[in-house]
Design goal:
About 0% of the residues lie in helices and about 60% in strands. With about 140 residues, the chain is mainly beta. The strands form three sheets. It has a five-stranded mixed sheet with strand order 3-11-10-6-7, with no helix packed on it. A four-stranded antiparallel sheet has the order 2-1-5-8, with no helix packed on it. The protein is elongated and about 60 Å long.
């Protein structure tokens, strides 16, 4: 199983394709805090045929620098039933998805991360910084 994921300005899935705008967000600028994340999480999970036979559990945890949870999303995913003739032997199966993180609250400036766990195993960690514009930055 291979997992690619990005925080981005916007993302959609259409006809099995993952369309991403502004991928690779690592810094979220806000005029004041508390605020909201206002980003999407674009995920592409590539499964080998043996991994695609059943459902998998996806858990996404947004946490602060101390590991405290701001929000958690949890659900199942799979590739569904495909006609046998649709795949070549050993062909990997791409599973694109988009999760809306726009309304997740960010209480203050700091370092945060989005943790993706698949079947209770850490698959990807996406750190990001929430900050005020440079002319408003809080002194260290």
């Amino acid at each position: 199983m291979r997992v690619e994921a990005f925080l981005c300005d916007a993302a959609t899935v259409r006809e099995g394709l993952l369309n991403i705008l502004g991928a690779g967000v690592t810094r979220i600028w806000r005029e004041s805090f508390p605020s909201i994340m206002n980003v999407d999480l674009a995920i592409m999970i590539t499964l080998m045929p043996v991994e695609a036979k059943g459902p998998h559990r996806l858990r996404v945890v947004i946490q602060n620098e101390d590991g405290g949870s701001l929000a958690e999303l949890d659900g199942e995913f799979g590739v569904g039933a495909l006609p046998v003739h649709a795949l070549k032997p050993g062909e990997p199966l791409a599973t694109p998805m988009v999760l809306n993180l726009r309304q997740i609250p960010i209480l203050k400036e700091g370092v945060y991360s989005v943790e993706l766990l698949i079947d209770s195993q850490l698959a990807k960690s996406l750190p990001f910084v929430a900050a005020l514009p440079m002319n408003q930055a809080t002194p260290a």
